[in-house]
UniProtKB/TrEMBL annotation:
InterPro entries: RNA_pol_sigma-70-like, RNA_pol_sigma-70_dom, RNA_pol_sigma70_r2, RNA_pol_sigma70_r4_t2, RNA_pol_sigma_r2, RNA_pol_sigma_r3/r4-like, WH-like_DNA-bd_sf. NCBIfam families: sigma70-ECF (TIGR02937). The keyword Zinc-finger does not apply. It comes from the Bacteria. SUPFAM superfamilies: Sigma2 domain of RNA polymerase sigma factors, Sigma3 and sigma4 domains of RNA polymerase sigma factors. Keywords: Sigma factor, Transcription, Transcription regulation. It holds the Pfam family Sigma70_r4_2. Gene3D superfamilies: 1.10.1740.10, Winged helix-like DNA-binding domain superfamily/Winged helix DNA-binding domain (1.10.10.10). This is RNA polymerase sigma factor. Residues 121-173 form the RNA polymerase sigma factor 70 region 4 type domain.
């Protein structure tokens, strides 16, 4: 915890800010990348959203109050940036968020960075059928193994609601994967 407090202090300091921000990127880049990738699907889009996330973190670090863990705050920003990205794409394409996600999913097979098997693709298709909140909760729990307590801070909702969302998501995914 001391390391996190020191890092926050350095991020808020004019003298150490650049160096601390580089350390922050090194420490969290991969975890945030995969969190965003699970939401937006495309590697190139993920890179764009990740860059926007770090810009927002850099610009707003002074507003971080320490009410939650630093990574919870950053995950919240990454989640919001991902959702904003999907919403902007839907608006630009004059379509629904679901259709934008379906389009991204359809493009997964041609994405050179997607190395998934047929079953992994089918799992992604099953996840895409879930409501947005259940997708987020499922991805965070299943792929990132984030504890409900931490997820509760990131998504600003109760652990009970998150457990219920995950349980429903698993049931729907099982049903999707076992249909003929």
């Amino acid at each position: 915890m001391t390391d996190e407090l020191e890092l926050i202090e350095q991020l808020k300091s004019d003298i150490h800010r650049e160096q601390a921000f580089r350390a922050l990127i090194t420490q969290y880049k991969e975890r945030l990348y995969w969190h965003i990738r699970n939401i937006v699907k495309s590697h190139d889009d993920t890179d764009d959203v990740l860059q926007n996330t770090f810009i927002k973190i850099y610009k707003n670090i002074d507003k971080f109050k320490g009410d939650s863990k630093l990574y919870s705050w950053m995950y919240r920003i990454a989640t919001n940036e991902s959702i904003t990205f999907i919403n902007k794409n839907a608006k630009r394409l004059q379509t629904s968020n679901e259709e934008v996600q379906q389009l991204a999913l359809n493009n997964l097979t041609s994405d050179v960075y997607f190395e998934g098997s047929d079953i992994q693709l089918k799992l992604q298709q099953a996840i895409a059928t879930l409501p947005d909140k259940q997708q987020l909760v499922f991805n965070m729990k299943y792929f990132e193994d984030i504890k409900y307590k931490d997820m509760s801070e990131i998504l600003e909702t109760s652990e009970g609601a998150l457990k219920a969302s995950y349980h429903l998501a698993v049931k729907k995914i099982e049903a999707y994967l076992t249909q003929d």
